[in-house]
Amino acid sequence: MTDVTNGVLHTLFQSDQGGHEQVVLCQDRASGLKAVIALHSTALGPALGGTRFYPYASEEEAVADALNLARGMSYKNALAGLDHGGGKAVIIGDPELIKTEELLLAYGRAVASLGGRYVTACDVGTYVADMDVVARECRWTTGRSPENGGAGDSSVLTAFGVYQGMRAGAQHLWGDPTLRDRTVGIAGVGKVGHHLVEHLVREGARVLVTDVREDAVRRVTEGRPQVTAVADTEALITTEGLDIYAPCALGGALDDASVPVLTAKLVCGAANNQLAHPGVEKDLADRGILYAPDYVVNAGGVIQVADELHGFDFERCRAKAAKIFDTTLDIFARAKADGVPPAAAADRIAEQRMAEAGAAR
């Protein structure tokens, strides 16, 4: 099941991604599966993170993404108060073209071979129905359908957590958590973004949206006069009067091109790894833009799938996700007290929890 090539090994040993515990490259020739499973830390417990199914240009690119995402999950789970470390898996290929039952079963066997060190769930390109198939070969699978003992779609609570992060940002910046009459721009209105639109419309915010898929834009704009489509992300982030920018698609949204032209005063979105490289967090702070660390505010989904392992209760999970408001406020306060960007303050809190757990073990 495991196949490691010299080229990818070279990439692994040359990368500096934060001291991962284990990286496994998996291949099943019969089904066409090629996947990477990265475990960043199990200091707090079994690594927990989703499965991304994406047409990477190369194995090296897939490995780099898995390493980045796994590290982010360690920090996310630590700040969410979960007894889980961080891991992530990526399946290489276009899910529209190669996703089959046989491939998902082979992937389930790959996860099961780790003996519970990694617990998987949905991510970009994978869905509840896919996790139901994976679970047939692997009991360390979450994000399953209610009919199969799972909690279902985790994007509902992910969006709720991002909404709570926005409220915390509004409280910190403007002294009031309400988002009524604020203008919020959302880039990506897919699984999470469209739920976020619903929260904002309900509260009375003005919402601007963009997405590469026209059907996704139509779904959130039809029948909602408060929601307006814009041409693309560049048009969105340069809109005058934009209060909040919510990147809800793939990572790297905040980079050397976007930060200088961003008009929003708060960035708070669902996408993972929004900072394209180290230093972007300081660029945001220098421009007076408050950044709500992505792995803090988008933790609602992982809170849900972690709860599934112990008998899912939606209201219990929603109450836990609501605490993202307080956690985000605490991070803003520590950042101000320490004179560092919020991303650095969040990292320090997460690293402290992981270090204490590791020392206790």
Task: Summarize the topology.
Layout: H1 6-14, E1 22-28, E2 33-41, E3 47-54, H2 59-79, E4 85-92, H3 95-98, H4 101-112, E5 118-122, H5 128-134, H6 155-174, E6 183-187, H7 193-203, E7 206-210, H8 214-221, E8 227-229, H9 233-237, E9 244-247, E10 266-267, H10 280-286, E11 290-291, H11 294-297, H12 300-308, H13 314-322, H14 324-338, H15 342-360
Parallel strand pairs: 3-4, 3-5, 6-7, 6-9, 7-8, 9-10, 10-11
Antiparallel strand pairs: 1-2, 2-4
List keywords for this structure.
361 residues; alpha/beta; Rossmann fold; 2 domains; 6-stranded parallel beta sheet; 5-stranded mixed beta sheet; 11 strands; 44% helix
The number of distinct structural domains comes to 2
In quaternary terms, these chains amount to single chain
Strand content: 15-25%
Specify Rg, calculated over alpha carbons.
20 Å
CATH superfamily placement of the largest domain: NAD(P)-binding Rossmann-like Domain
CATH class of the largest domain: Alpha Beta
Distance between the termini: 31 Å
Mean pLDDT across residues: 92
The SSE string, one letter per element, is: HEEEHEHHEHHEHEHEHEEHEHHHHH
How does this model look, in words?
The protein has 361 residues and is of the alpha/beta class. The protein folds into two domains: 6-11 and 19-66 and 86-148, Leucine Dehydrogenase, chain A, domain 1 (Rossmann fold), CATH 3.40.50.10860; 155-353, Rossmann fold (3-Layer(aba) Sandwich). Helix content is 44%, strand content 16%. It has 15 helices and eleven strands. It has helices at residues 6-14, 59-79, 95-98, 101-112, 128-134, 155-174, 193-203, 214-221, 233-237, 280-286, 294-297, 300-308, 314-322, 324-338, 342-360; strands at 22-28, 33-41, 47-54, 85-92, 118-122, 183-187, 206-210, 227-229, 244-247, 266-267, 290-291. The strands form two sheets. Strands 8-7-6-9-10-11 form a six-stranded parallel β-sheet, with helices on both faces. A five-stranded mixed β-sheet has the order 1-2-4-3-5, sandwiched between helices. A hairpin with a 4-residue loop joins β1 and β2 (33-41). α1 crosses α2 and α12 packs antiparallel against α13 (314-322). It is globular, with a radius of gyration of 20 Å. Mean pLDDT is 92; it is low at 1-15.
